[in-house]
Known about the structure:
Layout: H1 6-19, H2 21-28, H3 32-45, H4 54-90
Helix pairs in contact: 1-2, 2-3
Amino acid sequence: MKKYSKEFKEEALKLSDEIGVKKAAIQLGLQYYTIADWRKNRKAATKLPDPATDAEQRARIRQLERENAELQQANEILKDALGFFAKDRKK
C-alpha cells in the first residue's frame, strides 16, 4: 500500500470537491475508493461533538438569560448616569 503525504491528500480532496471524486481519481491516477475513503475520514474528523443533554442546555440558557438581564440593567444605569452628567455639562 502506497503512502501519500498530507499535502497531497489535501490537494486531492480539494480537487475532488471541485470536479468530483471519479474525475479527480482519474486525473491523479488513484483508485476511486482511495479518495472516497479520504473524504469519509475527513468528514468523520470534522464531525461536531454530540450536543449537551437537554438539562445541561436548559441550565446554560438560564445562566445566559440571567447574565443578559444583568447586562441590560447595567446598561440602563449607565444611560441614566450619562443623561445626568450630560445635563450638568449644559449648565
